[in-house]
Every structure is written in C-alpha cells, then in structure tokens.
Amino acid sequence: MCGIAGVIYHSLEYYRHLGSDLLSLIEPLESRGPDSCGVGLYGKAEQPSLFKVLLLAEGNIPWQEVKQSLSQLTEVVKFEDIGTGCRAVLRSEDDNCLNFLELRTELARSFPGLHLLSMGQQLEIYKEIGAANHLFGKYNLKGFAGTHGIAHTRMATESVVDTCHSHPFTSAQDLCIVHNGQISNYYKLRFALERQGVIFETNNDSEAIAHYLRYQLVQGKSLEAALNSLLNDFDGTYTFLVATSDKVGLVRDKFAAKPAVIYESAEIVAIASEYRCLLNLSEFDSQATIREPDAGEVNIWRAKTATCNSNY
Questions:
Q1: Is the pLDDT of residue 18 over 70?
Q2: Digit-coded pLDDT (tens) for 114-173
Q3: CA 153 from chain center: how many Å?
Q4: How confident is residue 59, by pLDDT bands cut at 50, 70 and 90?
Q5: Which residues of 262-277 are buried (b: 16+ CB within 10 A; e: fewer)?
Q6: Distance between alpha carbon 92 and the CA centroid of its chain, in Å?
Q7: Does residue 306 carry a pLDDT above 60?
Q8: Hey, is 145 helix, strand or coil?
Q9: Is 42 helix (H, G, I), strand (E, B) or coil?
Q10: What is the Cα Rg of the chain in Å?
Q11: 2 is known as an active-site residue
C-alpha cells in the first residue's frame, strides 16, 4: 500500500504553491507507506539548449571527477552539491549529446554508486528513505515554484527499501511516474522490454511502467494512446500518475482496486489517494468538482509550460 498525489495549476499566480501543496497532499498519506518519499517537480524551463540533471550518490563520490566526465560530453553550465547528491545544468545544441539512457549508463559505468535521478528542461526528481517532511526540508522543496508535480510515499512490498527503489521513476527527459499497486505480469513485461534494449536499474515493478511508456511514446503514440495501451497490456491492481513537461495523466486499473480522488477547479487540479488530503490545499474550494475515477479510466490534464521568461 502506497500513497500518490499530484498537482496541476492553470493560473500562474498559484505556481509558488507547488512545493507546499504537494507536501500537504503527500504527508497525510505516510500512514499508507512510511518507507520513503519522492517528488517529481516541474519548475521554470531552462533555455532550449540547457538541461537540468539531478544526481544521487551512494557512498563517497568524487564529484570533481564527475564534473570532468560530464564536461567531456557537453558544456557544464552549473554544478552544485545538493543534499547527498548534485544538481547540474548542462548545455547541448545537439540532443544526441544528452540522451538520457546513454548518460545514465555512462555515469553508472564510470562511477558505481552514482544514479541519474532525472534529466530535462523542467523536471527535478528528489527522493529519499524516510518521511516527507525530512525530504522537503533537506532539499528546501516547500518553496519550490512550478506548473505541476507528482509525489509518492511508499510501503515496500516487492523490493528493498532504498532510495533507488523509491518513486518517482523516470526513463526519459521530463518524464516520470508514481504508482500505487502491484503489476502481476511484471516479469513478462520486463522480459519483453529488455528484448527491446531497455536496461532496468531496480527490481521494483513500478519501473516497468516508466520504461513501457517511454517505449510507446518513442513509437510515435500520443500519451493518451500509450496509457490506453498500458491498460490492455498490464495486469494487476494499480493507480498511477505520469507527468511530462506539459501533461499529467492518471490511470486506474479495470478493477478500481486502488483509490484515487480528483479535485478540479478553475485554478487547479489535484489528485490524491485519499479525500482528506485535498482539504489541505492552500486554495481549497468547497465548490470545486471532487470525484473518484471509474475503473479503467484514463485522465489527462494539460499544464501551462513555464518558460524561462516566466516570473513566479
């Protein structure tokens, strides 16, 4: 049993609430899973040629060597320690120089114990063992401003408790997922994806969702088509959120076994595993539409992209 939450803003004036709203949504859900917490936050977009990279260290990592290794691939605009990891901004005029999967593989080969948490023009992933308040405090996330984000609190049932097995999972630039439930045909799906060249980092069944969606999107499918394909291909009981640079999608399995509640107003869409979390929103409106998604329902909301010129 885990808890998931998400926020999408339709009005620029609310962007400054992203960090605090996500904390208020996910913290009550620790009763569903206290093992770890993680967030995928979509903030101000970098310039077209710049990409944010979040790195996590397990053990002692020679950060200057990491910086030097990155500089051999592309220009390092910024490189700073943050928590037990590092946040870098890289410049690349050629997208091929910053292929997410290739960069992840190269870093893991050169620096065992170093993990690429996220990469993109907007996405920043932070996750850690322990309570939500600890995570938000360590990385000063309560004041994070942005267009949308998703969050997760975990109770481990099928894999170890560590940061790498925690959510969100990512498989491409500006793409991440959080998941509550179990994928019963996980090994079959994993084998099929591995035959397509996908490399898994963990034994968490949720990672298969991220890789599956990336594969579908690379084939040219829309996000909606990819999510509907997933409903047919994935067995189990699950509710999950997927976020991209400008969209958030919610999928509930055909048995409706895992909970979700949707709050929609003119200014904000919020999703949480339990209704009580929604009452903590900074701008909760009792007149907003609040509903539970049906079995097998797919929802997609569009967020306004926060360009590098946005002020919030």
A1: yes
A2: 999 999 999 999 999 999 999 999 999 999 999 999 999 997 776 788 888 899 999 999
A3: 12
A4: confident
A5: bbbbeebbbbbbbeeb
A6: 23
A7: no
A8: coil
A9: strand
A10: 18
A11: yes
Enter the tokens of residue 87: 């946040």
Q: Cα–Cα distance between 226 and 66 in angstroms, integer? A: 35
Concatenating the DSSP letter of every residue in 193-231 gives HHHTT---S-S-TTHHHHHHHHHHHHTT--HHHHHHHHH
Give the strand pairing for 75-82 and 123-129.
unpaired
Mean of pLDDT values over 104-114: 89
User: From CA 90, how far away is CA 173, in angstroms rounded?
Assistant: 13
| Alpha carbon separation from 311 to 14, 20, 94, 143 (Å, rounded) | 12, 18, 28, 15
- What is the CATH T-level fold of the domain 3-44+132-302, as seen in this structure? Glutamine Phosphoribosylpyrophosphate, subunit 1, domain 1 (3.60.20)
Output the pTM of the full model. 0.94
Contact 77, 50 (CB under 8 A): yes
Q: Where are the domains of the chain?
A: 3-44+132-302, 46-120
Fold of 46-120: Alpha-Beta Plaits (3.30.70)
Looking at residue 272, its amino acid is A
Distance CA 185, CA 235 (A): 6
Using CA atoms of 110, 158, 178, 164 in order, give the dihedral in degrees to the nearest 10: -20
Catalytic one among 2, 37, 176, 277? 2
The residue with tokens 């267009």 is 147
* 55, 181, 272, 290 from 261: Cα distances, Å: 32, 16, 6, 7
What percent of the chain stands above pLDDT 70? 96
Q: Residues 6 or more apart from 96 whose CB is under 8 A from it?
A: none
